[in-house]
Known about the structure:
The protein is 67% helix and 5% strand. By secondary structure, it is mainly alpha-helical.
Amino acid sequence: xxxxxxxxxxxxxxxxxxxxxxxxxxxxxxxLLFAGKVGxxxxxxxxxxxxxxxxxxxEIPNKWDLEGTHxxxxxxxxxxxxxxxx
Length: 86
C-alpha cells in the first residue's frame, strides 16, 4: 500500500479523521497515554544502553535489559492485539 495514498484517504475535507483510533478501539487519551508510555520507555532504555556503551562497567538492570525490554514489548503487543479484537 502506498503510504502517501493511505494518508490521503484519512483526510476528509481538510480535517484528519480518527480512523486510526477507531480501528484500534481506543480513545485519543488512551492512545496518547499508551503511545507516550511506549515512546518514553524506549527512549529511557536507549539512554541506558548508550551509557552502558560508553561505560561498560555500568550494568543495565534486568528490568531494562534486552530481555526485560522484550518482555515489556511482548506484553504491550498482546494488549493491543486483544484491544483490536474487542
